[in-house]
């Protein structure tokens, strides 16, 4: 593995205490998995964690994610300190929400994924980009963009509670609590819980 035994043990101790969604045994499995993946990746980050390409590969292999844009967004939400590398702590912390998060945590997570520029709002333009990306094109369609614009309008009608033309975290949370299916309204960013 990539980590020394001592470092691994320290990490397991601190993560085991910190993790409220995983048992100590689960944390240990996740860290071993992380360590194995890092060793296998041989990237420039190999000592500390893995980069976006490695992470995409993991999302694809383990969770069947295909969409590059979504995978990049998931990477950014996992990568808390924005150093373009996912550390063992970020891996366990991210997976805790990804796999076991409370509704509240998942709402916050999905909102972050969808708020492409991080300004605290999901705008028309962001919805359009994500929907355009996640919907399959029908070859017969004249102008698929029109259909997507309609979807964006419907989403706004349903979710924009304060009518300011964009969706804040407050709007998003209200909408999802009202109708849980709206959690991934703008594209799949959580695993299919198998």
Automatic annotation (TrEMBL):
It comes from the Eukaryota. The keyword Calcium applies. One of its GO terms (molecular function) is calcium ion binding. Pfam families: EF-hand_7 (PF13499). The keyword Nucleus does not apply. Keywords: Calcium, Metal-binding, Repeat. Residues 66-101, 102-137, 147-182 form the EF-hand domain. InterPro entries: EF-hand-dom_pair (IPR011992), EF_Hand_1_Ca_BS (IPR018247), EF_hand_dom (IPR002048), Recoverin (IPR028846). This is EFCB1 protein. It comes from Semnornis frantzii. The gene is Efcab1.
